[in-house]
Structure formats: structure tokens, C-alpha cells
Write a structure and sequence with these properties.
The structure is a single chain. By secondary structure, this protein is an alpha+beta fold. It has a single domain, classed as Immunoglobulin-like, CATH 2.60.40. It is built from 2 helices and 10 strands, in the order H-E-E-E-E-E-E-E-E-H-E-E. The strands form 3 sheets. Strands 2, 5, 8, 9 and 10 form a 5-stranded mixed beta sheet that branches. The longest helix has 23 residues. The chain is elongated, with a radius of gyration of 22 Å. The protein starts with a helix and ends in an 8-residue tail after the last strand.
Length: 184
């Protein structure tokens, strides 16, 4: 009888741990707002162009995310940048045909953005767009995260994820010429 009650307690804690994990990750689409800006002025041809993503949680529950600081592809998939020329044509992506290998990147632990709070992260535009000539560029940012698709669970009996994409308003980046380069 003594062992039976110990097993019951153990099963109780396993079930409680599972339920608390489900409650902690409620997998809802959060009311997130994304804004981007470029802190650098006087950008010249060939410069690295930093873009700051600021994600604000306007929802009623905390948004959990993995604060990764590295990915072997050179860019972290959650943060995407798209640049367009003045005529509206998309600037080529230098890694468009990149085939990622096995493995991911270094994790920085799980973080949360509480309702009414923000989180900022700087991403380099050059990793997403081949900016190689002086021009005016329109840039938008996209923040992506996944949630469980409960409709798929109800229909198929298995969990599938659904990607949510939050887009920013466009900003303008002006890239200037370096001028004439002289040798010797």
C-alpha cells in the first residue's frame, strides 16, 4: 500500500507538470506590433546597414520567444527584411538559394515580452538584401513565430504548427556613393 500511494503521487506530479506546461504555452496569436528603424545616418555604398526591430506586445498575455544569438545560416529566421528599389522591384536576396545544413544556432534562453512591454533586436539588412549601389530603398521588417494549430489537432489528432507573420510599416534607407576611389 505504501508503494501504491507513492506511485499515485508520482503520477499526479507528472500530470500536473504536463498541464502546467500546456497552460504556460497557451499558443495564441498575440497582438504584437513591429516597428523598424535604422539608427545609422550617412550610409555609404558597402557599409553594413543595421536595422533595429522593436516588437511591442499590445495583447493581454505574455509572448514567449527564443532569444537566439546565432544561426549557422548567418541570419535568424524569425527576423526577416525585404528591400525594394524606388521602382518597386525587390532587391535580390544574397542567400536566396542557400541550403541550410544540419543543426541550428546558439540559444540564448527563452524570454517573454509582457503586455505593454517591448523587445528590440538589431539585424543587418545586408544579410537579406544585396545593397550594392547608391539608391533609395524601401525596407520592411517581418517578425515570425509559430503557434500550435488547434484546428489541425481537432481534425487530425496531431499537433501542427502555424506560422504567424507580423509586418512593419516601410522605412526609407538612402545609400550614398563613396565617391571616386583613387589608388596610389
Amino acid at each position: 500500500m505504501k508503494y501504491l500511494s507513492l506511485w499515485q503521487v508520482l503520477i499526479f506530479f507528472i500530470v500536473l507538470n504536463f498541464i502546467s506546461g500546456v497552460w504556460a504555452n497557451n499558443d495564441v496569436e498575440h497582438d504584437l506590433v513591429l516597428t523598424i528603424h535604422c539608427p545609422q545616418r550617412n550610409i555609404k555604398q558597402g557599409d553594413e546597414i543595421p536595422i533595429v526591430f522593436t516588437i511591442t506586445n499590445n495583447g493581454s498575455s505574455a509572448h514567449s520567444f527564443e532569444k537566439r544569438n546565432y544561426d549557422r545560416s548567418g541570419r535568424i529566421w524569425e527576423y526577416e527584411l525585404v528591400a525594394k528599389y524606388q521602382d518597386g522591384m525587390k532587391v535580390p536576396d544574397p542567400r536566396e538559394n542557400y541550403e541550410g545544413g544540419i543543426g541550428g544556432g546558439l540559444g540564448g534562453g527563452e524570454r517573454e515580452i509582457w503586455p505593454g512591454h517591448s523587445y528590440s533586436r538589431t539585424i543587418t539588412l545586408n544579410q537579406w538584401a544585396l545593397i550594392n549601389k547608391p539608391d533609395r530603398y524601401s525596407v520592411i521588417g517581418i517578425y515570425s513565430y509559430s503557434i500550435r494549430d488547434t484546428d489541425a489537432y481537432n481534425k487530425y489528432g496531431t499537433y501542427r504548427s502555424r506560422t504567424i507573420r507580423v509586418k512593419s510599416a516601410p522605412i526609407e534607407i538612402v545609400v550614398k556613393s563613396r565617391g571616386r576611389w583613387r589608388m596610389g
